[in-house]
Amino acid sequence: MLSSQQSLDVNTCRICHDDESLEQLVEPCECSGTVALMHISCLEKWLTTSNTRSCEICKYRFPLQTLNKPVMVISLAFMETVA
Ligand SMILES: [Zn+2]
Ligand SMILES: [Zn+2]
């Protein structure tokens, strides 16, 4: 019994490595385990900066319209306008 490993059970965002004390962690794609967890705001930031709509690991295509976040709608509309 290694009770000292309990501290490793804290869920963290795979992008910013912060926990969910400030923002709830979600599993937006089909990755499993701790690698699937991330903040919605981090996901938005990552998708925007990397100019992609799919998870780099599981290739899951994010249904962005269901995120219902104004900043994502704005950035996507901007990207489509430019393209
Ligand atoms: Zn994060
Ligand atoms: Zn994934």
Automatic annotation (TrEMBL):
GO terms for cellular component: membrane. The keyword Zinc-finger applies. Keywords: Membrane, Metal-binding, Transferase, Transmembrane, Transmembrane helix, Ubl conjugation pathway, Zinc, Zinc-finger. The keyword Membrane applies. Residues 13-59 form the RING-type domain. Transmembrane segments: none annotated. PROSITE patterns: ZF_RING_2, ZF_RING_CH. It is found in: Membrane. It is a multi-pass membrane protein. GO terms for biological process: protein ubiquitination. Residues 5-65 form the RING-CH-type domain. It comes from the Eukaryota. Pfam families: RINGv. One of its GO terms (molecular function) is zinc ion binding. This is RING-CH-type domain-containing protein. It comes from Cotesia glomerata (Lepidopteran parasitic wasp).
